[in-house]
Amino acid sequence: MSENKIRNEIHVFINGAEHRISGEKAFLPLAQYLRYHSSLPGTKVVCAEGDCGACTVLSAKLENNTWSEFQAINSCIAPMYLFDMGSLVTVEGLSEQENLSEVQNKMREFHGGQCGYCTPGMVCSLSSLAEKSACSGKAITEKKARNFLTGNLCRCTGYEPILAAATNLDLSKWKSLSDKYLTDSQKNQFRPLASDSLMIEAGAKKFTAPANFQVATEQKSKSPQTRLVAGATDLGVLHNKGKAFMDDVMSLHKITDTNEIKMTADGVWVGARVTLTALENFLEDKLPELSRLLRIFASPQIKNQATLVGNVMNGSPIGDSIPALLALDAEVHLQSTKGLRKVALPKFYKAYKVFDVTADEIATGILIPVPGPEWKSKFFKVSLRKDLDISAVTFAALLKVDGNTISDARIAMGGVGPTVVRLSEIESAMKGQAFSEDTFARMGEKVRTLIKPISDLRATDEYRLKVAENLFKKCHIELQQEMTACP
């Protein structure tokens, strides 16, 4: 890493004040740094898993000399080092010269305040909604308020007062957080730091953020045990619970190409650092069924940090995005000092947590082909709650229908074995069959003989078998309705 300037501290603004953080403090979860080293105890920690939302704060980042918008994130699972060249706003930073913000006033006026643990995070989530709505000029509906609050679980006072506070916000009174905290002065302070690499060490802990892929692959080749971390929405939980530790990690957030999402001749290119929120918005008119699935992937706080590549490389057998990506024939791009390697996702998963990736390779992104209009798609997630829950079973179907005949099929499922699987036997059996209720019912019966789900805390094996069968019927019903409704 000698070719680049190497910093051993991160630079971040918190409520407008610059912080330079190095050593052990850089490895703390953001919430702990705020509470114990910044005298900002308004941010609470309850679950330490990114589930309850009590730790919600607002985050913006400087990328390509442009500030992103402020978004709500969970501060309990995100390590401090991920916020280099960023700007953070906590509940203490929302007020204006000791006057409450419009969100805080409305929560008070409509009696939406919870206990002292959950109110600050809820106020931050609603502030994210107010900031976005004021910028777009769009009114706040109850549905939009519910969506922005899905990551804040506590409802001590009931839903109605909170929703009333949200829908009665006077956006003309909202003081823009971007205008207040994302200034040219801050940008000028950060600009000389943009090309720096980062290396922070504290005892046995080591964090690096290379400035380009060449440096990153060279470092990974020398230290294959180093783990890649993106949003830390999964690794952060494991770290907090003592099941896996982020003591030797690398982030790609200094490499601007990793934030790129674009349409190419071969499909949608999704860089390694593209968040699920950004992807959901980008795919709305390109792969609308995948965009719809991402809406219920997780809470806004999680999706604003989590990445598609992180979900794929984590390789959970219940990973929400993976069945859809398998059915779409997506491919993951892996870079090492030996060059670029492309692996079709259906061949990537070998066994439980065993992937076609070598220790010295770095995932740079994923290419998602966009099927033509002759293909019909349905992606399902089944969980105990609609929002903010881990899946029991996931399902993806991509079908080419000619007239009333299925000429081609791609089917994938998760939660039914040690890995997400492409069901090649089902695909072969569906080809040439009528697009009918009977065909899908028979395929549902057949799938029960091919999958081997287990019983765990989320569902029994028999439940998963029945759900898998029923999802084929659901797929036919919804596609039939859509095809009938088409002019």
From TrEMBL:
Residues 199-373 form the FAD-binding PCMH-type domain. The keyword Manganese does not apply. It comes from the Bacteria. InterPro entries: 2Fe-2S-bd, 2Fe-2S-bd_dom_sf, 2Fe-2S_ferredoxin-like_sf, 2Fe2S_fd_BS, Ald_Oxase/xanthine_DH-like, Beta-grasp_dom_sf, CO_DH_flav_C, CO_DH_flav_C_dom_sf. The keyword Flavoprotein applies. GO terms for molecular function: 2 iron, 2 sulfur cluster binding; FAD binding; iron ion binding; oxidoreductase activity. Keywords: FAD, Flavoprotein, Iron, Metal-binding, Oxidoreductase. Its EC number is 1.1.1.204. This is Xanthine dehydrogenase. It comes from Bdellovibrio bacteriovorus (strain ATCC 15356 / DSM 50701 / NCIMB 9529 / HD100).
